[in-house]
Design brief:
Blueprint (H helix, E strand, L loop, with lengths): L1 H27 L11 H15 L3 E2 L2 E3 L5 H6 L8 H17 L2 H11 L3 H11 L14 H20 L7 H17 L4 H18 L4 H29 L5 E2 L12 H21 L3 H8 L7 H28 L5 E2 L10 H13 L8 H20 L1 E2 L14 H4 L3 H23 L3 H28 L12 H20 L3 E5 L11 H10 L3 E4 L2 H5 L7 E2 L24 E4 L4 E4 L1 E3 L10 E5 L6 E10 L5 E10 L4 E9 L8 E5 L5 E5 L5 E8 L6 E7 L6 H4 L12 E7 L3
Parallel strand pairs: 2-3, 4-5, 6-7, 6-9
Antiparallel strand pairs: 1-2, 8-13, 9-12, 10-13, 11-12, 13-14, 14-19, 15-18, 15-20, 16-17, 16-19
């Protein structure tokens, strides 16, 4: 009776933790106004939409990847709604359910290990308190990946507890299926499969509990089962797509040149990723779980070995796939903790087990050496090999507090002192055999640091922080996207419309305007094509005329080009500034204009043209000393009036005005403004006039204007360009 009562109480508590986690995370997820993470959220949302609407994996006219798509398949149910804002909310709610659901396998695992109910529940709470839970606010695979990995490792732990399951066919089929799901969710999940195979082999040499034949057969069986699941899903996805050419997002990345520079960078990456991973995992759980590894055949010891092996293989894959290829300098580190955070809770469980069971052999040579190294070198490494701050938002949320570390010297000082003090206290209490105090100290430290990480992540988004692009997190962006989506949906009811999305260029890593187009594209549910403006100008169009009916758009990065031409366009949505179009009429939509411009094509053929564009002019009409004007015309000579001023420039700048034929004139720009007439010529073969205006007379507003924080080096303002009529 008492046991049944305890089980009921446990059930209600764990369900309560789950529901509270879902509610809190869903509330906090509203801080993201729109999809914001590079092309990732765009890709998964569009694959989900295609799977729901067409039962295929189409993205921008390509049939996309045959693996790692379990997450978009699951969130595709959100597209039962037609309203884009409701779809976005539903996806985030699904994320909250998926990620919060880890409490159940963590509870079941912890209950098998500990006899202390409150310790079990505290570990469960920590599992949904880590900063990486912010992934619930993003359309990212990590929300499902966390749950799949935790469930898989839970059943692997059961195998460690029950060796009799080692060679059964049913069990091996089940485990290989779980391992495949890890990979089918996220490519880095392959590391768990490789770790399982390698651990099976190593366990033969470490524990001597199984015959070599049994080990060989198990490795072979698991490999064949995994390969069977892989090819079965690959064939199924190709079937629903009609067996087309598949655009693979990943294979294009594998280009290595094995030389000394590559090897040095790879070695540096392994060390630095490992260092920052230990920091992200709050040091003590990692050091304790590793230093406690022995040749004992206990399930918890096997779990520690397996998790360490999985982490190492994941780091090696990350190093070769990402660090070597994407890090331009080893002095600015991009660490994908989001690929590794799924293992953190297991390090913490292993650490808690050793302290709870008073393992007197924890403070060994390995522990002392690693602790001394961290205490002595951490501040040096953190300062010399800095994290790329912008990447902390997505790649390393468990290190998000480093935004404060690099911003405030006092935080930096407290952090470095804290590492030394924490390690000192831990070692001292272990020597004194104060295991209970050490356990409480470790769990409290982890929980507090997790809360700080959560606070940092959510506060940065709520304050509309702009490290990765202008406007993210703001209600203005949300309103513009919803207004545009609603407008197009209404027009689509009257008549099927085709939209062209046109950023200045493809999404850039520094948060260029392509990101805002990605955000809109993720939420758009009408027929559309995508064409970057600058790439479009370099396409085989003449005189700046965009004739798209038979033009094949560019494929998404790393992919094939679409097989279907763009066709006739009804509306153009762009983030391009300083451009005047012909045959495009600006559409007035309430609340739209800060981030996007919506045009209606007024040409029956669906074509439009660039009449004039100004290059290198800031939004406030200033420039950095050179600005170019491009005017498309079939004439050989035109006269233009240039409206110029230099309001805050302490000098009246001297400017040189020239065209592509070498014709050059000079004048002075007055502070109060002046209009200068210029006769521009072009070469016979040129499609456009290009007028350059240059000046060496510049100033920095911050040094001249009181209270200004503008550090740009500016020269003059180009207010307007008017072409004189003949």
């Amino acid at each position: 009776m008492t046991r049944d009562l305890n089980n009921r109480i446990n059930f209600f508590i764990i369900v309560g933790i789950f529901l509270v986690s879902v509610i809190i995370r869903f509330y906090l997820s509203q801080l993201t106004a729109a999809p914001i993470v590079f092309g990732d959220e765009l890709l998964w949302s569009k694959l989900a939409e295609s799977f729901h609407n067409q039962l295929n994996t189409d993205f921008r006219g390509n049939y996309f990847i045959t693996q790692n798509i379990l997450y978009p398949i699951i969130i595709s149910v959100a597209y039962f709604f037609n309203d884009s804002s409701m779809i976005y909310l539903t996806i985030k709610l699904i994320n909250c359910f998926l990620m919060s659901a880890v409490v159940f396998p963590i509870f079941l695992l912890s209950r098998r290990i500990f006899d202390n109910r409150w310790l079990v529940f505290f570990l469960v709470i920590i599992s949904v308190s880590i900063p990486e839970m912010f992934q619930t606010a993003l359309i990212m695979q990590e929300s499902l990946f966390y749950l799949i990995i935790v469930v898989t490792i839970y059943f692997i732990f059961i195998e460690f507890e029950n060796p009799s399951n080692f060679s059964t066919t049913t069990w091996n089929l089940f485990i290989s299926f779980l391992l495949f799901l890890c990979y089918f969710t996220k490519a880095i999940g392959l590391a768990l499969f490789l770790s399982y195979l390698l651990y099976t082999i190593l366990s033969y040499f470490i524990f001597k509990r199984n015959k070599l034949k049994e080990v060989a057969l198990k490795v072979l069986y698991i490999s064949i089962s995994f390969a069977s699941y892989y090819y079965l899903t690959k064939l199924s996805i190709e079937f629903v797509n009609g067996f087309p050419d598949i655009s693979d997002l990943y294979m294009q990345k594998f280009h290595f040149q094995f030389n000394i520079d590559f090897l040095l960078k790879a070695a540096s990456g392994l060390v630095l990723i490992s260092f920052y991973t230990i920091i992200a995992f709050m040091i003590l759980p990692v050091i304790v779980s590793i230093s406690s590894i022995s040749k004992q055949h206990s399930a918890i010891n096997q779990l520690s070995i397996f998790i360490l092996l999985s982490t190492i293989i994941s780091i090696v894959i990350m190093d070769f796939m990402i660090f070597v290829l994407e890090t331009s300098s080893i002095y600015e580190i991009r660490v994908h903790i989001r690929y590794l955070f799924v293992y953190f809770i297991f390090y913490l469980i292993a650490c808690a087990y050793q302290l709870y069971n008073k393992n007197e052999n924890l403070v060994n040579l390995f522990f002392i050496v690693l602790s001394v190294l961290f205490a002595a070198l951490s501040s040096f490494i953190l300062e010399k090999y800095k994290l790329v701050n912008a990447m902390l938002y997505v790649d390393a949320m468990m290190l998000s507090y480093f935004n404060l570390y690099y911003k405030y010297d006092v935080f930096k000082l407290l952090f470095n002192i804290g590492i030394i003090i924490s390690l000192t206290i831990f070692v001292y209490w272990q020597i004194k055999r104060k295991f209970r105090q050490t356990l409480i100290f470790t769990l409290a430290s982890v929980f507090i640091i997790s809360l700080i990480g959560n606070f940092t992540m959510y506060s940065l988004y709520s304050s509309n922080y702009k490290n990765i692009g202008s406007g993210f997190g703001s209600n203005e962006l949300r309103k513009e996207i919803n207004s545009i989506s609603n407008f197009l949906n209404e027009k689509n009811k009257e008549k099927s419309v085709k939209v062209l999305l046109m950023p200045r260029t493809e999404a850039k890593m520094d948060g260029g305007d392509g990101f805002r187009i990605d955000s809109l594209e993720s939420m758009l549910n009408v027929n559309y094509s995508f064409l970057p403006f600058l790439e479009g100008l370099n396409a085989p169009f003449t005189d700046g005329v965009f004739n798209l009916e038979n033009f094949y758009p560019f494929g998404y990065k790393y992919t094939n080009s679409p097989k279907v031409p763009i066709g006739k366009i009804d509306y153009v949505i762009t983030t391009v500034e300083n451009v005047i179009f012909e045959h495009l009429n600006l559409v007035s939509i309430d609340g739209v204009g800060k981030f996007y411009r919506v045009y209606k094509v007024d040409n029956e053929n669906g074509t439009f043209a660039v009449a004039q564009m100004i290059i290198n002019r800031h939004v406030d009409l200033w420039n950095d000393g050179i600005v170019k004007i491009r005017i498309y015309s079939n004439k050989q000579q035109i006269n233009v009036d240039l409206n110029l001023n230099a309001t805050d420039n302490p000098t009246n700048p001297t400017i040189k005005i020239s065209d592509s034929t070498g014709h050059l004139e000079s004048t002075i720009v007055k502070k109060t403004g002046s209009i200068y007439s210029f006769e521009a010529n072009k070469n016979q073969q040129d499609q456009f006039f290009e007028i350059s205006i240059e000046s060496n007379d510049s100033f920095v507003p911050k040094t001249i204007i009181p209270n200004s924080v503008d550090t740009r080096e500016l020269s003059f303002r180009l207010l307007d360009v008017e072409i004189k009529k003949d």
